[in-house]
């Protein structure tokens, strides 16, 4: 089953949005496969956002994501990578549809509440960056037959 890396960013943690965001993915039918509250070391932040190294906002982005605790998660389910991106809404909350996480909770691109992997390759890379094997929990959910 497909897995993705989702993270409530420091603004989302400070604004008490962890529970709401977890609920959205639970209610949708996805399975939580790992979760932890953590401070991101600068080196990990630079690796995680490596694709944006040359962008003018890279420094700000790394400063922001390391500015307070994040809630890092692995979610599992059919088509979870693309569906989670849809549930998050567009990168710029000003353009994100109401009903999406960023559309409901954000105003500016610099503080857009949530991260989610954008493709199978980045999902695998990001899960491995943030979670070791013991932190990824394999189990069956008894309500699976009512979702699939
Ligand atoms: P996403 O988080 O939707 O995958 P991205 O990978 O293009 O978006 O960018 C990573 C993060 O960088 C994004 O969540 C917020 C920040 N960012 C993107 N574009 C920005 C910009 N033009 N100015 C400031 N921050 C930006
Ligand atoms: Mg991205």
Automatic annotation (TrEMBL):
<dbReference type="GO" id="GO:0004550">
    <property type="term" value="F:nucleoside diphosphate kinase activity"/>
</dbReference>
<comment type="subunit">
    <text>Homotetramer.</text>
</comment>
<keyword id="KW-0547">Nucleotide-binding</keyword>
<feature type="binding site">
    <location>
        <position position="85"/>
    </location>
    <ligand>
        <name>ATP</name>
    </ligand>
</feature>
<feature type="binding site">
    <location>
        <position position="102"/>
    </location>
    <ligand>
        <name>ATP</name>
    </ligand>
</feature>
<feature type="modified residue" description="Phosphothreonine">
    <location>
        <position position="91"/>
    </location>
</feature>
<dbReference type="GO" id="GO:0006228">
    <property type="term" value="P:UTP biosynthetic process"/>
</dbReference>
<keyword id="KW-0479">Metal-binding</keyword>
<feature type="binding site">
    <location>
        <position position="57"/>
    </location>
    <ligand>
        <name>ATP</name>
    </ligand>
</feature>
<comment type="similarity">
    <text>Belongs to the NDK family.</text>
</comment>
<feature type="domain" description="Nucleoside diphosphate kinase-like">
    <location>
        <begin position="1"/>
        <end position="138"/>
    </location>
</feature>
<dbReference type="GO" id="GO:0005524">
    <property type="term" value="F:ATP binding"/>
</dbReference>
<protein>
    <recommendedName>
        <fullName>Nucleoside diphosphate kinase</fullName>
        <ecNumber>2.7.4.6</ecNumber>
    </recommendedName>
</protein>
<keyword id="KW-0808">Transferase</keyword>
<feature type="modified residue" description="Phosphoserine">
    <location>
        <position position="122"/>
    </location>
</feature>
<dbReference type="Pfam" id="PF00334">
    <property type="entry name" value="NDK"/>
</dbReference>
<keyword id="KW-0067">ATP-binding</keyword>
<keyword id="KW-0460">Magnesium</keyword>
<keyword id="KW-0963">Cytoplasm</keyword>
<feature type="binding site">
    <location>
        <position position="9"/>
    </location>
    <ligand>
        <name>ATP</name>
    </ligand>
</feature>
<comment type="function">
    <text>(Microbial infection) Catalyzes the phosphorylation of dZDP to dZTP, when the bacterium is infected by a phage that produces the substrate for the synthesis of dZTP (2- amino-2'-deoxyadenosine 5'-triphosphate), which is then used by the phage as a DNA polymerase substrate.</text>
</comment>
<comment type="function">
    <text>Major role in the synthesis of nucleoside triphosphates other than ATP. The ATP gamma phosphate is transferred to the NDP beta phosphate via a ping-pong mechanism, using a phosphorylated active-site intermediate.</text>
</comment>
<dbReference type="GO" id="GO:0006183">
    <property type="term" value="P:GTP biosynthetic process"/>
</dbReference>
<feature type="binding site">
    <location>
        <position position="112"/>
    </location>
    <ligand>
        <name>ATP</name>
    </ligand>
</feature>
<dbReference type="InterPro" id="IPR034907">
    <property type="entry name" value="NDK-like_dom"/>
</dbReference>
<keyword id="KW-0546">Nucleotide metabolism</keyword>
<dbReference type="InterPro" id="IPR036850">
    <property type="entry name" value="NDK-like_dom_sf"/>
</dbReference>
<feature type="binding site">
    <location>
        <position position="91"/>
    </location>
    <ligand>
        <name>ATP</name>
    </ligand>
</feature>
<feature type="active site" description="Pros-phosphohistidine intermediate">
    <location>
        <position position="115"/>
    </location>
</feature>
<dbReference type="InterPro" id="IPR023005">
    <property type="entry name" value="Nucleoside_diP_kinase_AS"/>
</dbReference>
<dbReference type="GO" id="GO:0046872">
    <property type="term" value="F:metal ion binding"/>
</dbReference>
<dbReference type="GO" id="GO:0006241">
    <property type="term" value="P:CTP biosynthetic process"/>
</dbReference>
<dbReference type="InterPro" id="IPR001564">
    <property type="entry name" value="Nucleoside_diP_kinase"/>
</dbReference>
<keyword id="KW-0597">Phosphoprotein</keyword>
<dbReference type="GO" id="GO:0005737">
    <property type="term" value="C:cytoplasm"/>
</dbReference>
<keyword id="KW-0418">Kinase</keyword>
């Amino acid at each position: 089953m497909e897995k993705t890396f989702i993270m409530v960013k420091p603004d989302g943690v400070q604004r008490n949005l962890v529970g709401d965001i977890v609920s959205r993915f639970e209610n949708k039918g996805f399975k939580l496969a790992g979760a932890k509250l953590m401070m991101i070391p600068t080196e990990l932040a630079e690796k995680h956002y490596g694709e944006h190294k040359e962008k003018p906002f890279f420094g700000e982005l790394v400063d922001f994501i390391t500015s307070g605790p994040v809630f890092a998660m692995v979610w599992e389910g059919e088509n979870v990578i693309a569906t989670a991106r849809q549930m998050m809404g567009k990168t710029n909350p000003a353009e994100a549809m109401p009903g999406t996480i960023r559309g409901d909770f954000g105003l500016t691109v610099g503080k857009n509440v949530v991260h989610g992997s954008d493709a199978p390759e980045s999902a695998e890379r990001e899960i491995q960056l943030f979670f070791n094997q013991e932190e990824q929990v394999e189990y069956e959910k008894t309500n699976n037959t009512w979702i699939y």
